[in-house]
Design a protein that fits this description.
alpha/beta
């Protein structure tokens, strides 16, 4: 497949550096590009898409690590450092064990050394949208998970050019921005841990064709609007996890897997697929989520298994064969060490927690 034939996704929102601490205190800290937007785009790049993150990375240590990780998967970084640039968000994820022995994870946004807040998300400015929009041609999907004027402007342009607009709200946000996002988005997906529902998704002035609510280990529910009226809520049980190491990032794999199977040709494919293809695509996304739960980190499996093994293991999960084999996670490489930007100039090495 030539580059021009590959599906293309642009996305803006949370692009961060994940620092992952496993349950073994002797193990190295892993550092990977993360954030909802970062993960969805990286997974689709792994699946063969052209992925363009739109962010404000300024060249700090965290952004260098994120850019190197994105580059490893062949992502396009033309718009990863939109002006004005800013520090890249850093999220610390600690994986432990609950009383039942199952993995549990805790997120932290503060430095364990100095106690100060680590860099957080800052949206792209609207002044950057014209440059991005000029190159946003032949786009299959536009994804955003944080509300901003720039995200909404790009979503509108993408929709006008035949792309599927996907919105994953992280919270209620500003009322007016939220209403505009719901009006523009063709797919709205969220977790029951964050929201019980999103008002107006299937309203008369909404473009939404599909609403998905993930339910953790209980699977997901969804409703669509491919007929005259919205469907009732439909349920899909989760695909059992062969080996549970970490559930972080499962929702991102559901999103990416679904998009890979149902939106490669944009709105044309989404509409033609209808209700049956929607269900099949969601099931594929659930299989990807189940597979990645066998690895530590939101995208840990991508670093441990090659593409051929990935395809065969996912196929086995869909077929109900749960004895998938996997390789252990790779250890942290020296260039993954990152300093806390809030610490003194000597810098606390977060990789040495």
């Amino acid at each position: 497949m030539t580059s021009s034939d590959r599906p293309r996704i642009f996305g803006t929102g949370l692009v961060a550096l994940d620092l992952v601490l496993g349950p073994d205190p002797q193990s190295s800290v892993r550092s990977w590009a993360g954030g909802t937007c970062g993960n969805v785009l990286a997974i689709l790049a792994f699946l063969g898409w052209e992925a363009f993150p739109v962010a404000r990375m300024n060249g700090d240590q965290a952004s260098q690590r994120v850019r190197a990780d994105f580059g490893h998967w062949g992502m396009f970084l033309d718009f990863a450092s939109c002006e004005p640039t800013a520090n890249t968000p850093i999220v610390i994820q600690e994986i432990g064990r609950g009383r039942n022995g199952k993995p549990r994870h805790r997120f932290s946004w503060s430095c364990p050394k100095c106690g100060k807040w680590l860099p957080t998300y800052k949206p792209v400015w609207k002044t950057a949208t014209e440059t991005v929009a000029h190159s946003m041609m032949n786009v299959s999907v536009f994804f955003f998970d944080r509300l901003s004027h720039a995200a909404l402007s790009l979503a509108k342009i993408a929709a006008e050019r035949g792309a599927v607009v996907v919105f994953e709200p992280s919270g209620r946000g500003t009322k007016n921005l939220m209403a505009e996002a719901i009006r523009l988005a063709h797919i709205v997906k969220y977790s029951d841990q964050r929201m019980a529902g999103v008002n107006g998704v299937m309203g008369n002035d909404s473009s939404t064709l599909l609403e998905v609510q993930t339910l953790g280990e209980n699977g997901l529910r969804y409703r669509h609007r491919f007929g005259r009226l919205p469907s009732k809520w439909l349920y899909l049980n989760a695909i059992p996890v062969p080996r549970l190491a970490d559930s972080c990032g499962a929702g991102d794999w559901v999103t990416a897997g679904f998009l890979a199977k149902s939106t490669a040709r944009g709105m044309v494919q989404l509409r033609r697929g209808g209700a049956k293809r929607i269900r099949e695509a969601l099931r594929y996304g659930q299989a990807l989520a189940s597979w990645n739960c066998g690895f530590e980190g939101a995208r840990g499996g991508m670093y441990a298994v090659n593409r051929d093994a990935f395809d065969s293991q996912v196929a086995a999960l869909i077929a109900g064969q749960l004895d998938t084999d996997s390789n252990p996670d790779k250890e942290l490489q020296p260039n993954s060490i990152v300093s806390c930007p809030a610490c003194p100039t000597t810098g606390a090495k977060l990789g040495h927690i």
